[in-house]
Fold this sequence. Notes:
This protein is elongated. Helix content is 57%, strand content 0%. The chain contains four helices and no strands. By secondary structure, the chain is mostly helical. The mean pLDDT is 77.
Amino acid sequence: MNLETILAEIDAEIARLQSAKALLSSVAIPTIRKRGGLAKMKSEMLTPAKSPKRRTMSAEARERIRQAQLKRWAATKKVAKPNLNATAAPLPKAKKKTAKSAAA
């Protein structure tokens, strides 16, 4: 085979593919038949998929999850904020003023 025949075959293949593309792009949305077949398969591809049904949770389960989360938050707060009073010396207590010392 020479180069010219190969190029001619490639051009013929390109023309055939372009005509197939034009046919496919001009096809209208297919109607749904009761028996199914190709039309049903095409329409199923065009419709969006349904989301799965959401599961419900009992009030008791939600409360258990809530309590566990509160416990986790408390633990992280305890680690993040150490007790400052344990390391520092306690402040001296202020003396109460009595009536005798106020008069003197």
